[in-house]
Amino acid sequence: MHDFLKKASKAYYEGHPIISDAEFDKLVERHDFTEVGYRSDFKFSHLYPMYSLQKVYPGNPMPLSITTSETIVTPKLDGAAVSLRYSEGKLVLGLTRGDGKKGVDVTEKLASLVPAVIDMGGEVQITGEVVCPSTIPNARNVAAGSLNLKDFEKFKERPLKFVAYDIQPKVHNLWTDDMSEVKQNGFNVVNESDWKEYPQDGKVFRLDRNDLFEELGYTAHHPRGAFAYKEKQTGVVTKLLDVVWQVGKSGVVSPVAILDPVIIGEATISRATLHNISYIESLGLEIGCRVEVIRSGEIIPRIVRKV
């Protein structure tokens, strides 16, 4: 199962996830998987590491006090995280998140979404999310997959937007003041709007004071001064009637669950993807068992657990 989660993590950060966030989070929790991102021999390093955020679900203790005025709450946009490097005010490098330390060079694409020149000297890294409107089917995958397009003209046709959520090194003592300066330099910033027209998968809680944020420090995977609060997606329980194998457009053979029809949202669901035999074994599925089904991204039906 550890190998499967590494494969799923790699696919996620390359922009073509093989399982949903909800499925991944549940399997991570069940199998105590702690690796973040994936490692590969990229050519370019981020100026500053791009950490992931600790995930907190309803019922879990909060790692920070969320009742003080020093805690800022922003949407957790669900797209593709990237970093922008400016040298003496000029954009010199744009990278995908990769494993958080190194990423793929997508400078040409990002240059069409962000200012080419900013009024800041020295070496500056601005991080943020490339997002696609929720009205586009599979918007999160479109945002991430667009960065992998070889055809730049096709990339420019996509309705993408870059929304900044951090700058390093810090300019002011308050993160909100930093974001105001980033906005003054021509960027969209995460705290200027609720961004409801774009996919989101929770909220981000962050200390506003940068000195307190840095004082708390970092784990190997995430900062201690911020966390992501995510609602667990509630599924519907039904019966697994059968499993059939189908050949996809790429020629890959994959299993599909045949379900006792059940209504999720406004759709009647009778089939759900099972990915591969390892996924079936990890959930302990068998014909006739009861399973919990969700619609990943409100579109794709998936089995997340055996009941």
Write the layout of secondary structure elements.
Elements: H1 2-14, H2 21-31, E1 44-45, E2 54-56, E3 71-77, E4 80-87, E5 90-96, E6 102-103, H3 107-111, E7 123-131, H4 139-146, H5 152-157, E8 161-168, H6 175-184, E9 188-189, E10 200-207, H7 210-216, E11 226-229, E12 236-247, E13 253-264, E14 267-273, H8 277-283, E15 290-296, E16 300-306
Parallel strand pairs: 2-11, 8-9
Antiparallel strand pairs: 1-6, 3-10, 4-5, 4-7, 7-8, 10-11, 12-13, 12-15, 13-14, 15-16
Helix pairs in contact: 1-2
Structurally, the number of domains stands at 2
Q: In angstroms, what is the radius of gyration?
A: 20 Å
Q: State the share of residues found in helices, binned by percent.
A: 10-25%
- Tell me the overall shape: globular
Binned strand content: 25-35%
By DSSP (H or I, 4+ residues per run), the number of helices equals 8
Element pattern in H and E: HHEEEEEEHEHHEHEEHEEEEHEE
CATH architecture of the largest domain: 2-Layer Sandwich
How do the strands of the widest beta sheet line up side by side? Answer: 5-4-7-8-9
Structural class: alpha+beta
What do we call the CATH homologous superfamily of the largest domain?
DNA ligase/mRNA capping enzyme
Summarize the main sheet.
Answer: 5 strands, mixed
Find the count of extended strands (DSSP E, 2+ residues).
Answer: 16
CATH domain topology of the largest domain: D-amino Acid Aminotransferase, Chain A, domain 1
What distance lies between the first and last C-alpha atoms, to the nearest angstrom? 19 Å
Query: Uncertain spans, ≥5 residues at pLDDT below 50?
Result: 38-42
CATH C-level category of the largest domain? Alpha Beta
